[in-house]
Amino acid sequence: MYRFLMAALLVCMGGALQAQQPQQEDARTFAKDIQQPGVQVFDVRTAEEYNTGHLPKALQADYTNKPEFNERVKYLDKQKPVYIYCLSGGRSSKAAQWMRENGFTKVVELENGVNAWKQAGLQLEGVNTKKTQLTMEAYNKGIAKGVVLTDVGAEWCPPCKQLEPVLAAFLKSHQQVKLMKVDGGNDTDVMKAVGAKGLPTLIVYKNGREVWRKQGVATAEELAAAVK
């Protein structure tokens, strides 16, 4: 019995060690695998780097900005695969190891990062697509009348993605509320002017006067109470 228990323990330990081993893929394999349903693509470069071009459907958090990284990574699903990358592989390797040690079941690294992606002749999204910024004049006009909910967010922000269905359901049941979108990756002047220091930031205005604010993911109940 003792030998049986020891053997079982060694098998379990071996499986745990195996699960913690770094897993890397070359660019073409990585490109194929991120097309699978349920995959989370995670860019751990800076927002500035992300905006020069990124992988399809990639979420972003700057690994070198620990408060930002720790906040955004909470909104990834630990039970679903995470395919992670940076510019050359250094930051993503460290981020992947942290994630494995903190309960993520499958983290796959892009070997040599975006540099290898480009060398393989693969295309990045978001290259040369700089948009015109929302002006403060347009923003102030948009919030001047009625009840307005400002959503300062971005499509690449993990908590913003989690907030999307909450906002959709809330706006459907509160049709008197107007939504004002501010792109946190583009509308930096407005973001600075309204004092939005993180993503997402939600602000409720009534006839141009701010009455409520929250940084982070809000519940439908919080939003409903804010617009009463």
Automatic annotation (TrEMBL):
SMART domains: RHOD. Gene3D superfamilies: Glutaredoxin, Rhodanese-like domain. InterPro entries: Rhodanese-like_dom, Rhodanese-like_dom_sf, Thioredoxin-like_sf, Thioredoxin_domain, Thiosulfate_ST/Rhodanese-like. Keywords: Signal. Residues 35-126 form the Rhodanese domain. This is Thioredoxin fold domain-containing protein. Residues 1-19 form the signal peptide. The keyword Signal applies. It comes from the Bacteria. Pfam families: Rhodanese (PF00581), Thioredoxin (PF00085). Residues 113-228 form the Thioredoxin domain. It comes from Chitinophaga varians. The lineage of its organism: Bacteria, Pseudomonadati, Bacteroidota, Chitinophagia, Chitinophagales.
